[in-house]
Design a protein that fits this description.
Structural class: mainly alpha
Distance between the termini: 43 Å
Strand content: under 5%
Radius of gyration: 15 Å
Shape: elongated
């Protein structure tokens, strides 16, 4: 994956550093996370945040090969 340098407000970087530390992410990864969530929320304005969050978790579990088959009934 390629990277690009951009200028963003220092206040946002500071907040991302705090949140990233609390959630065991680097500052850039925290900003990427916020951007991903924001894009999903804008693309799906009727979905609640918790649903979007669970969709991101489910995708990560799938990519890690950690899904289990669900048996109905």
């Amino acid at each position: 994956m390629s990277t690009t340098s951009i200028r963003i407000d220092q206040e946002l970087v500071d907040k991302a550093a705090i949140m990233g530390k609390a959630l065991h992410r680097t500052t850039p990864k925290q900003i990427e996370h916020w951007a991903k969530v924001g894009a999903m929320m804008e693309d799906n304005p009727d979905l609640p945040y918790e649903f979007v969050k669970q969709a991101i978790i489910a995708k990560a579990e799938k990519e890690a090969g950690k899904l289990e088959a669900y048996n109905f009934g």
